[in-house]
Amino acid sequence: MNLLMIGGDRSILQGKRSAFWYTLQEFASHWDRIDVLCPRADHPCCEPISLQCYQPVGGNVYFHPSPWPLWRQPQWILQRGKELSRTSGFSVMTAHEYPPFYNGIGAWRLSKATGVPYVMEIHHVVGYPHAASPFEFIGRIVSQAFLGLDSRPAAAVRTVNSSTAALLASWGVDTKKIGVVPSFYLDREAITSVGEQPIKFDVACCGRLVPNKRFDVVIDAVGSLPGISLAIIGDGPDRSRLEQLARDRKIADGVTFLGWLPDQPAVLKAMKSANIFVMNSSSEGGPRVLLEAMALGCPVISTRVGIGADVIRDGVNGVFTSGHRIDLAAQIGRLLADRELRLELGAEATKILIQFDRKKLIADYAAFVQSFAH
C-alpha cells in the first residue's frame, strides 16, 4: 500500500534528525512506499529524493520539495501529486494542515482530481489557547472561521490530543470524522539507555525558539531566582532576541544555549542533566519533548496546553504553572528546594513510557490512515 504525505516539514532535507525523522523511521515499515510533498528546501535538487540519501531510515520514503515559492504550494501539490499518482497509485493521502492552509487546499484539489481520499492532520491550532504574537492571534481567528469548511472534503480529521478535538468540534468540524491519534512516540530503547547523567543545570527546556514556546518568560523567571542555571535546547528565529534578553537580565553566564543537538540520544542526555524540565508554551499540540522528559524521570513543570493537559496530574507526576513569570519562578523555586518531591514526581512520571510506546502508537497511526484507503 502506497501513501502520499503532504506537509511542511523540511528538517530532514536540512540534515536534521527531527521528530519527523524518528516517526518515519518506524512508520515506513507499514507501507510499501511513502512519497512526501513539502515546500522548497535548501537543496539544489527538486527531483524525488530518497530519505536514505540523508539518513539510513529506509529506501521506500521519497521527498519532493517544491521548486516554487510557498504561495504556489497548492499548485505544486496538485501537479506533482497527479504525476506521482499515475506512477505510484496511492491508496490514501495525509495532509498536515495549518495556516495559511495550502496543504489542505492542495490535498482537496488533488483528491478531486485523482479520487484518492485524504486524512487531514491538525496537530495543534495556532494561537490556542493563548496567542504569543499578533500573527498567532490572526491565525487562531482564521482557523476558527475556515477549518469547519476546510475539513469537509477530508475522509477524516486526525488530532493528537483531546483538547484540540473538542475545539475543532466546537468550530463545526464533523465529530464523526474526528479521531484522536497521538503522535508523541516514545522510544523505549533510546530512553532507557540514557542512564544517569551528571547534573549540569538547574532547569532545562527544549524546542524551536519561537514566540509560542515562551522561552523569554522562562529566562525572566530564572533571572528572578539568584544563582539558577538554565539550558535551552534547540534553535530558531528567536535565538538572538533571547540571547540579548539574557544579557539584559545580567544572567547570560547562567543561560546556556545548546542549539540543535546532533541526534535524539544527545537531546535526551541534555534533558536528563537538569534538575527540572520546563515546558512553558502558550499553545502546543504536544510537545513530544515533555513526554520524553517525563519518561526519563525528570520532574516537569508545564502549562495546561497540548498533551500536558491530558497526561499531567498536578502534584503527582508533574506540576502545572499558569505560565506567567511570577508563578513559574515560584514553581521552579519550590521544586529546587525540595529534592524528595522532585524524586517522587520523577518516579511517577516514568510510567508515561507505557502509555506512549513508540511501536504501538505508530502501528495505531498507520492502521488509522489505512482504514480510509480506497
Major sheet size, sense and barrel closure:
8 strands, mixed
> Secondary-structure element order, as H and E?
EHEEEHEHEHEHEHEHEHEHEHEHEHHHH
Share of β-strand residues:
15-25%
Principal-axis shape: globular
Helix content: 25-40%
Task: Tell me, rounded to a whole number, the average pLDDT.
Answer: 91
Task: Give structural notes.
With 374 residues, the chain is α/β, with parallel strands linked by helices. The protein folds into two domains: 2-185 and 357-370, 3-Layer(aba) Sandwich (Rossmann fold); 188-355, Glycogen Phosphorylase B (Rossmann fold, 3-Layer(aba) Sandwich), CATH 3.40.50.2000. Helices cover 40% and strands 16% of the residues. It is built from 15 helices and 14 strands. An eight-stranded mixed beta sheet has the order 3-4-2-1-5-6-7-8, covered by helices on one side. The termini are close together. 47% of the residues are buried. Residues 43-57 have low confidence and may be disordered.
Which features would summarize this protein structure in a list?
Rossmann fold, six-stranded parallel sheet, 374 residues, alpha/beta, eight-stranded mixed sheet
Short account of what is shown:
40% of the residues lie in helices and 16% in strands.
